[in-house]
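User: Reviewer 2 asked us to show a designed sequence for the structure in our supplementary figure. I'm pasting the structure tokens here. Could you produce the per-position amino acids so we can include them in the response letter?
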């Protein structure tokens, strides 16, 4: 893309792209875990997450508008705190995306068991992993256009659910109406208590994952000052879609019916006896989820190449051994990440999705933490802006610490802390060598 073509995007286009890119299997399937943890109050989790996400995006958009950079938030971390911060941010982002790929891979496998319940999870995982590698190796020039179409499918699937759910409530579906089951007590809303709400926050934040990528795309805006407007509209649309759809799901179905192996929207629509809907919806999620996973594999491949070129990864991954303009050494490590997900699915088929998704969500929020603290040092903020930034940090810490309170997702916290500690130690060593040289 040449400079004449770079800044051609209107703010509303960025908003729509953001909505399509952000909605993924983390929402379609991960929200079920949140529902099981906290009940109808999951809608508050999404509202809380929307506010926290808004704060992070605004800060990233302001840094991008002031100093557009290819490396975006990792570049800003390096500028604010030194090489160790840029290294930590880059590798943490790579690992978080590997885990997100693993989470999506597992989600696709679970959703496929909707049709073939007796086929082991790891077989589906292996199939989708190999297919993703083939798609990326093909290097199809129309890949971006396909991504846009599948993004529309994701949004359309949710809108279809909202329309059908409302139609069922007013009696247009199945010949009779269903009443909303709105709790009228504290225990009715917060079935898992306040700790359940706390634990569910990570899944709400995870559903908003992707805003950091949109922050980098803000460089393509015709007017860079429109970045904050684009982000605001994007998050307003996302929050509205999320809260309305998840609210309809939890108030039309008894909570014990939800299953972590099935999308809450498929579960909610089963009561309306629409034979086509579960299959259409499930298929739409799988198609869209697969596109996101394939795009993530392409993304981590190029991210590793960039890290190697910047001296933050072994030079092997900077080698220009390319096929279809794809650096094969860097892609090989990404494929190894997919293989690790398959092995994990084979060894831990019961709770693998919860573990990987929790770890991915925590590492994602660690990236967001880098964005906030970098902005606090780089941007000239007034007192109120500094207070908002501190609130953003608190939101992130609250979401991360909530994973401690539920034993089914706690292992994900341990995994993420171990990964961050390892990256941190390596970053400190590299920083010391950098000073010596």
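Assistant: Here is a per-position design you can include in the supplement:
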């Amino acid at each position: 893309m040449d400079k004449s073509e770079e800044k051609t995007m209107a703010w509303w286009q960025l908003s729509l792209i953001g909505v399509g890119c952000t909605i993924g299997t983390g929402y379609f399937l991960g929200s079920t875990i949140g529902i099981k943890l906290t009940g109808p109050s999951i809608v508050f989790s999404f509202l809380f997450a929307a506010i926290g996400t808004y704060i992070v995006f605004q800060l990233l958009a302001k840094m991008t508008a002031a100093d557009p950079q290819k490396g975006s938030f990792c570049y800003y971390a390096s500028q604010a705190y030194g090489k160790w911060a840029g290294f930590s941010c880059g590798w943490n982002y790579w690992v978080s995306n590997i885990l997100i790929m693993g989470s999506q891979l597992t989600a696709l496998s679970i959703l496929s068991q909707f049709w073939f319940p007796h086929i082991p999870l790891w077989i589906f995982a292996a199939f989708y992993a190999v297919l993703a590698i083939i798609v990326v190796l093909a290097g199809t020039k129309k890949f971006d256009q396909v991504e846009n179409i599948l993004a529309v499918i994701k949004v359309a699937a949710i809108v279809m659910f909202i329309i059908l759910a409302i139609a069922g409530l007013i009696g247009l579906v199945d010949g009779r109406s269903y009443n909303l089951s709105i709790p009228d007590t504290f225990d009715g809303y917060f079935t898992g208590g306040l700790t359940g709400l706390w634990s569910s926050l990570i899944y709400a934040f995870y559903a908003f994952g992707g805003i950091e990528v949109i922050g980098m795309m803000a460089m393509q805006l015709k007017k860079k000052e429109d970045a904050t407007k684009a982000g605001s509209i994007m998050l307003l649309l996302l929050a509205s879609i999320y809260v309305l759809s998840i609210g309809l799901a939890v108030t039309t179905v008894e909570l014990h019916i939800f299953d972590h192996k099935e999308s809450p929207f498929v579960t909610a629509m089963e009561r309306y006896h629409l034979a086509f809907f579960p299959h259409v919806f499930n298929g739409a999620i799988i198609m869209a989820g697969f596109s996101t996973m394939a795009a993530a594999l392409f993304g981590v491949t190029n991210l590793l190449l960039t890290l190697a070129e910047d001296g933050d990864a072994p030079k092997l991954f900077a080698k220009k051994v390319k096929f279809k303009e794809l650096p094969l050494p860097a892609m090989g490590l990404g494929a190894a990440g997919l293989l690790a997900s398959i092995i994990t699915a084979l060894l831990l088929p019961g709770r693998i999705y919860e573990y990987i998704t929790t770890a991915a969500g925590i590492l994602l929020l660690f990236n967001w933490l880098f964005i906030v603290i970098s902005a606090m040092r780089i941007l000239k903020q007034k007192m109120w802006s500094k207070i908002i930034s501190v609130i953003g940090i608190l939101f992130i810490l609250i979401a991360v610490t909530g994973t401690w309170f539920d034993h089914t997702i706690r292992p994900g916290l341990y995994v993420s802390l171990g990964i961050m500690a390892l990256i941190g130690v390596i970053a400190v060593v590299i920083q010391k060598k950098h000073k010596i040289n």
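For the response letter, you might also mention the following. Strands lie at 322-323, 326-327. DSSP finds 19 helices and two strands in the chain.
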